[in-house]
Amino acid sequence: MVSRVIPVDVFDLVIIGATGDLATRKILPGLYRRFFDGQMPAGARIIGAARAEIDTEGFRDLARRAIMEHVGAAKRDAVSIDAFLEALVYVPLDATGEAGWDELKALIRPDVVNAFYFSVAPSLFGDLTERLHSYGIATPETRIVVEKPFGRDLASAKALNATLAAHFREQQIYRIDHYLGKETVQNLMAVRFANILFEPLWNSQYIDHVQITVAETVGVGGRGSYYDKAGAMRDMVQNHMMQLLCLIAMEPPYHFDPDAVRDEKLKVIRALQPVPSSDIVRGQYLGTAGKEPKSGYLEDVEDPNSRTESYVALKVQVANWRWQGTPFYLRTGKRLRARTSEIAIAFKQPPHSIFDDAGGSWPENMLVIRLQPNEGMNLKVMIKEPGPGGMRLVQVPLDMSFAEALGEEGTDIPDAYERLIMDVIRGNQTLFMRGDEVEAAWAWTDPIIAGWEARGDRPQGYDSGSSGPDDALMLMHRDGRRWRNIHG
User: What positions does UniProt annotate as the active site of this protein (predicted)?
Assistant: First the structure.
C-alpha cells in the first residue's frame, strides 16, 4: 500500500522560539520530513524567530544538527537537507520589546498562507498577539499555533482564551495537542465511523469498561520545577487523556468537519460526572536503593514536602444514554514499568455459555488501540484451541500492526507534529482543540484538584519500574476488574 502525498499551498511559517527544545526536537525535523516526502512545496519558507543573536546561516546550522539527530538515516539525504535549509530564514526577535518586528514584517509575504507557531511560554502569548497586530503583520487570514499548557485552571484558561480572542478569531487559533495527530488516534475515528462492525456495539449494552493508559519510564528529569506546579492531572489527564476519552465516547458527528467533531467532543466533557475521592488514586515514584535511578520524585523536584502527583488513576463516568453504567478507567504516571500509551475497550461476556467446561466465564473480547510504541490495533477473540480432546477455548489476537499491514509505509508513520502543522497550513482545525473544549475540561478538572488540596492528601509512594501504587490496583479490583499489564 502506497500512501498519497498531497502538497499543501505555498506558505510562510514563522516559528517563534525557533532555537528552543521543541523546535529542534520536533518542529524542524518534522518539517524536513514533509519536505523530503514532497509535501512542502517549492517557494514555502520557514522563518525562525527567537532572542538568540544568530543569523540565517547560524539557524540553518542549528536545523542541520537537529535533522541529523532526530531524522532516520533513510531520509538524511545530503542534497535534500541542503535544499530544505535554503527555505530557512532567521530574524532575532524580542517578544516583549520592539526589536526585530520591522524585520519580521519585511519578510512576510501577504500573498501566501501565513502561520505563526508560538513555541514559547503562554505568558508571552499576549505580547506576541499584540505586536503581530500593532506592526500590521497579522491579517484576517493569519493562523496562530499555540502549545499547551492552556492555563493551569479554569480562570487562567479563560484569561488565556480572552488574550488570544482580543486579536484573533477562533477560526484562526490552533491549540495543538500532539496526541490528536497520532495515526492511531485518527484511525480510531475511522474504525468507529467507517465500519458497521463496531458502532452498533459501541455502548454500555456491550462494553463492560474502557481503560486508557499513558505510562512513561522516565522521571520528571529537568522539568522538575515546571512539573511540580502541574502534576499528572494537569500535565496529562486534563488535555491528552481527556481528548482520547472524548474520541472513544463521542457520538457520530454529522460530518467529518472541524466544528462538528469538536461539538461532539464538547458534549462528552460536559457529560462527565464529578469524581469522588474514593475513585481517585495519586502517587509519587520512589527511588531505588543501590541501583539507578536512585532518586525519587521528592529528590528530583528538590522539595521533600511536595504533594504533587507523578501518577494518577481515576474511575470516570459519562452521564449519557450511550455510556451509563460503563466506567472509564484512566491512569498515567512517570517512572513506570514500560513506556506505553493505549486504549483498551473491554466487551461484556456473552449472556449464556454453551460450553460447559468453560465454566461460563473466559477472558473478555478486547479491542486494544496502541498509540505507542508500535502503533496499531489488536482485537482479542475466543477460538477453539487446536487439537483433539474436546472443546477447549483459548484467546487469540487478531492483530493489525501498521508496520505489518502497510509494509514499508507502516514503518514510517509521520510524526504527530508533521501532520498537525500541515493541517494548519491547510486550514483544517479538526484535530485542534476549541476554546470552549479547553474551558469545559478545566471546569471538570478543577474540583478534583481542589478536593485533594483541601483534604491535604499526600500521594502514595510507588516503586520505580512498577505499575504504580497498590491502591490503583484496588480501584479496579473492587469492581471485579483488572488493569491490563503495562508493557512496551
Answer: 240
